[in-house]
Amino acid sequence: MNKTFRLIVLGLFVAQSLVLYIVEGMLPVPFIAPGAKLGLANLITVIALYSLPRKRDVFLILLLRVVLSTAFGGGINAFFYSAAGAAFSLSSMIILQKTGKFSLIGVSTAGGIFHNLGQVLVASAVVQNIKILLYLPVLTVAGTGTGILIGLTAYFTLKHLQKLPLYQRLQEA
């Protein structure tokens, strides 16, 4: 894919993920678990993971989203939480996708779970108390539910995107 087209695609993915991040911040969270979110911006990460041939492009999209979302509404702690969650999530999703043994929904679910793991590990380091890991089972349940929701949404979105000529162009190396 030529450089201009690639930059446009990456810019669109970053913009979409930022819009979903902002929209999610406006929604009341229906979870019992404090700190749990829907992870709407991760929808774009999953779609990019399954539609872009270069995994480094997915990493770049995620990095830009984390940096820009932190600049728009978070402090340095928010950056560390987001970066750790993103790194754990994307790493797990790439590994599981490469095995070929997991569905898109399974990969997305692992992303939700590992995102929470990364954030809890950072929280444990920040407060210097390992007991915060006791909260992990609650967040694992929340991450499983949101991962399934994001996975289902990504599945149906990709199913429709694959019908577009643009999708075929994305697949070109």
Short description:
Helix content is 78%, strand content 0%. With 173 residues, the chain is mainly α.
Please, could you describe this protein's structure?
The structure is a single chain. The protein is an all-alpha fold and 173 residues long. It has one domain: Arp2/3 complex 21 kDa subunit ARPC3 (Orthogonal Bundle), CATH 1.10.1760. Helices cover 78% and strands 0% of the residues. The chain is built from 7 helices and no strands. The longest helix has 26 residues, at 136-161. The mean pLDDT is 90. This is Gx transporter family protein. InterPro entries: Hpre_diP_synt_I, Hpre_diP_synth_I.
Biggest sheet details: none
> What would CATH call the architecture?
Orthogonal Bundle
Q: How many domains? A: 1
**CATH structural fold name:** Arp2/3 complex 21 kDa subunit ARPC3
The percentage of residues in β strands lies in: under 5%
Helix content: over 70%
What would you report as the Rg, rounded to the nearest angstrom? 16 Å
**Number of helical elements:** 7
Average pLDDT rating: 90
Number of DSSP-assigned strands: 0
Structural class: mainly alpha
SSE string? HHHHHHH
Shape: globular
Q: Name the CATH class.
A: Mainly Alpha
Distance between the first and last residues' Cα: 6 Å
Unreliable stretches: none
InterPro entries: Hpre_diP_synt_I, Hpre_diP_synth_I
Protein name: Gx transporter family protein
Pfam family, one: Hpre_diP_synt_I
Keywords: Membrane, Transmembrane, Transmembrane helix
